[in-house]
């Protein structure tokens, strides 16, 4: 009787979780998992066929976690296979390639696919999502030298854009490189910790500081400013608007995005762009 006591206590602390990977083909999902579990990188592309399944054990605080990882194929061809596997998931690793804009633009479609497969009763709110901006050129600094630089092609989704998308949805965000290993351990540790917090929080996703620190209006405005085609568009006024109209629009945006008030990723650049747009327009208006 006495001998069985610690065992029971131990099992109460152990946890079994299900994690899936999602994202377009070739963004690096399998390599991220391989880098973490096997500490190696494979440069040759070996497309996942349907699903790869693996089990790993991790220690988080005083808990032993048995992680069932379902690594999904990103190619649309495997949709029928994937849709069996969305159910009963506690954590999602959502990956895009920072050098492939379409893989970033596809993230919403991945969420939509999962939502559709979970059906009307599925709850995406209680799943921990971590967004990996993969193939990122993250470097380690030492004695004024930078080494371990990912050699991927030109980056076209910058950090603030990815972070804004992730954090405005309450998701975790990490810059990763499966090639160099940068960001991978940190990402998994935070991810597993959040899943444990979720389980200990009665299955509800814990609120992260960042998700509560800026509003949807601020996030949408930064995105609109990024995509604006000229200074008029940026300030949200019609071409040929008066000085008063320009100043009024500027003041509204300045209140929303001023660096003292707004901590959303990209707000500083957006604020500077608005200041420049106003200056340019006031110069051009007689
Ligand atoms: P599917 O299984 O088809 O959905 O693709 P995947 O997302 O699992 O991609 P995979 O991990 O197989 O990697 C695709 C290609 O990108 C391979 O050639 C990898 O070597 C390469 N790759 C993965 N991660 C990185 C990275 O961080 N940096 C660089 N430079 N290449 C990477
Ligand atoms: Mg794969």
TrEMBL record:
Localization in the cell: Nucleus
The keyword GTP-binding is assigned to this record: yes
Gene Ontology annotations for the cellular component aspect, listed alphabetically: nucleus
Transmembrane segments: none
One example GO MF annotation: GTPase activity
Pfam entry (one): DnaJ
Keyword annotations from UniProtKB, A to Z: GTP-binding, Nucleotide-binding, Nucleus
Listed InterPro entries: DnaJ_domain, J_dom_sf, P-loop_NTPase, Rab, Small_GTP-bd, Small_GTPase
SMART domains, sorted: DnaJ (SM00271), RAB (SM00175), RAS (SM00173), RHO (SM00174)
Domain J per the UniProt entry, residue ranges: 230-286
Family statement drawn from the similarity comment of this UniProt entry: Belongs to the small GTPase superfamily. Rab family.
Subunit and partners: Interacts directly with MAPK1 (wild-type and kinase-deficient forms). Interacts directly (in GTP-bound form) with MAP2K1 (wild-type and kinase-deficient forms).
Summary of the function given for this chain in its UniProt record: GTPase which can activate the MEK/ERK pathway and induce cell transformation when overexpressed. May act as a nuclear scaffold for MAPK1, probably by association with MAPK1 nuclear export signal leading to enhanced ERK1/ERK2 signaling.
Descriptive protein name: DnaJ homolog subfamily C member 27
Organism: Galemys pyrenaicus
Lineage: Eukaryota, Metazoa, Chordata, Craniata, Vertebrata
């Amino acid at each position: 009787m006495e001998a069985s006591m610690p065992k029971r206590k131990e099992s109460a602390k152990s946890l079994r979780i299900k994690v899936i990977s999602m994202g377009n083909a070739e963004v690096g999902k399998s390599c991220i998992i391989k880098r973490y579990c096997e500490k190696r990188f494979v440069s040759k592309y070996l497309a996942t066929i349907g699903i790869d399944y693996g089990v790993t054990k991790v220690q988080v605080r005083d808990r032993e976690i048995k992680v069932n990882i379902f690594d999904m194929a990103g190619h649309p061809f495997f949709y029928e296979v994937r849709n069996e596997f969305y159910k009963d998931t506690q954590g999602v690793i959502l990956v895009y390639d920072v050098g492939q804009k379409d893989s970033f633009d596809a993230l919403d479609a991945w969420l939509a696919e999962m939502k559709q497969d979970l059906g009307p009763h599925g709850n995406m709110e209680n799943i921990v999502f971590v967004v990996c901006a993969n193939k990122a050129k993250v470097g380690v600094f030492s004695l004024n030298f930078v080494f371990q630089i990912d050699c991927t092609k030109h980056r076209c989704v910058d950090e603030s854009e990815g972070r804004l998308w992730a954090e405005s949805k309450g998701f975790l965000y990490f810059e990763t490189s499966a090639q160099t290993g940068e960001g991978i351990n940190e990402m998994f540790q935070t991810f597993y910790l959040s899943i444990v917090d979720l389980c200990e929080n009665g299955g509800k996703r814990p609120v992260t500081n960042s998700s509560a620190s800026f509003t949807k209006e601020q996030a949408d405005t930064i995105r609109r400013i990024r995509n604006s085609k000229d200074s008029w568009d940026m300030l949200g006024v019609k071409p040929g608007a008066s000085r008063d109209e320009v100043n009024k629009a500027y003041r509204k945006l300045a209140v929303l995005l001023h660096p003292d008030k707004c901590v959303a990723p990209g707000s500083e650049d957006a604020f500077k762009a608005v200041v420049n747009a106003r200056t340019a327009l006031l110069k051009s208006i007689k």
